[in-house]
Automatic annotation (TrEMBL):
Keywords: Acyltransferase, Cell shape, Cell wall biogenesis/degradation, Peptidoglycan synthesis, Transferase. The keyword Transferase applies. It comes from Candidatus Collierbacteria bacterium CG22_combo_CG10-13_8_21_14_all_43_12. This is Peptidoglycan bridge formation protein FemAB. The lineage of its organism: Bacteria, Candidatus Collieribacteriota. Gene3D superfamilies: 3.40.630.30. SUPFAM superfamilies: Acyl-CoA N-acyltransferases (Nat). Belongs to the FemABX family. GO terms for molecular function: aminoacyltransferase activity.
Length: 339
């Protein structure tokens, strides 16, 4: 049975959520940002077995929507039938899925079975297909031992230089985070959500949701700020920003190490670094340095099963795909103009 979740389902919903993007708090944040949210539960006679959180994104100028279900389980046929029905009622042309499931034969089989029943096809990814996941149930000594030698050296160097990592969830800390976010996006030439989006995220996921805002401080200056989420014994690193000053003190290396220690202190078993490049990264890619930074901590490179679109209206779906390609061409041109 598939039904819409209600407030009394909140605790079990979060226990079954596979990722912070499926958490109840994330849904509340998206609502505050003006996005419609649908929470579905799949239950038998005795208990809820699975949960799915879908956001509805209106297509400008027309009364049609795109559904997005990131980091859920792969729906079975019963769940997909219910989701397809809800998408039809909403006037959605598609629902995009990016399951939080590893790319193994069992997951691939589930995808093939769905494709045999529904118009369920490979789609354009919004989330990275890979991430680094670090087992932090191990001792600190073992984690340090498994780090890249250079990474371990940089951690110790930052400690010797006097870099301090503190948790600060205050309004002032958020302003520092946002200032560094603007600096980082300009330096790295990538697009980011605006300040209002990040403020609502900070308020919902950190102040009221049990997340963390960490700062790396050196000689009275904040050099790095990170946002962390926790869910079901897993620690996540979704957002980070840094200054271009004093890079020689390796503040980000110590930030990562202190993040790992924080996760251990809170009883987390796994640290998910929220995305990476693949097993053969392009060294000329602008994200290669960030990928190598994460790799240095000895985590496992994990591949997810991929991105798939449940097509509800085939004609409009084809038009949407074409328009989306044109949109990204324009955005890339704008990015070049920002140089």
């Amino acid at each position: 049975m598939i039904r819409e979740a209600v407030e009394k389902d909140r605790i079990i919903f979060d226990k079954l959520a596979r990722h912070p993007l499926q958490s109840w708090a994330w849904g509340e944040f998206r609502k505050q940002a003006g996005v419609e949210v649908l929470r579905l539960v799949q239950a038998d006679e005795k208990k809820i077995r699975e949960v799915y959180q879908i956001t509805w994104h209106k297509i400008p100028k027309i009364k049609r929507y795109i559904g997005y279900c990131p980091k859920s389980a792969i729906p079975d046929a019963e769940a997909m039938k219910g989701i397809n029905k809800e998408a039809g009622k909403k006037g959605a042309i598609m629902v995009k899925f990016e399951p939080n499931e590893k790319d193994i034969e069992a997951s691939q089989k589930q995808v093939r079975e769905l494709a045999g029943i529904f118009d369920f096809r490979a789609g354009k990814p919004l989330f990275t297909k890979y991430t680094f996941q670090l087992d932090i149930s191990k001792s600190e000594e073992e984690i340090l031992k498994n780090m890249n030698q250079k990474t371990r050296y940089n951690v110790r160097l930052a400690e010797k230089k006097g870099v301090k990592i503190v948790e600060d969830n205050s309004e002032e800390a958020f302003e520092e985070y946002w200032k560094l976010t603007e600096e980082t996006t300009k330096r790295q030439k990538f697009f980011a959500h605006g300040k209002s989006y990040h403020r609502k995220m900070w308020q919902t996921m950190i102040v009221n949701g049990g997340g963390h805002l960490l700062k790396a401080i050196y000689e009275g200056k904040t050099l790095t700020t990170w946002v962390l989420f926790e869910l079901n014994d897993v620690l996540y690193y979704p957002y980070g920003a840094s200054s271009n000053q004093n890079k020689e003190v390796m503040a980000s290396n110590l930030m990562m190490w202190e993040t790992i220690k924080l996760g251990k202190k809170h009883g987390c078993k796994m640290f998910d670094m929220w995305g990476s490049m693949g097993p053969e990264p392009d060294r000329s890619d602008p994200w290669y340095g960030f990928h190598r930074f994460k790799q240095g901590y000895g985590g496992e490179l994990t591949e997810f099963v991929g991105t798939y679109d449940l097509v509800v209206n085939r004609t409009l779906y084809k038009i949407y795909i074409l328009v989306d390609k044109l949109r990204w061409i324009v955005l890339k041109l704008l990015a070049k103009l920002r140089k």
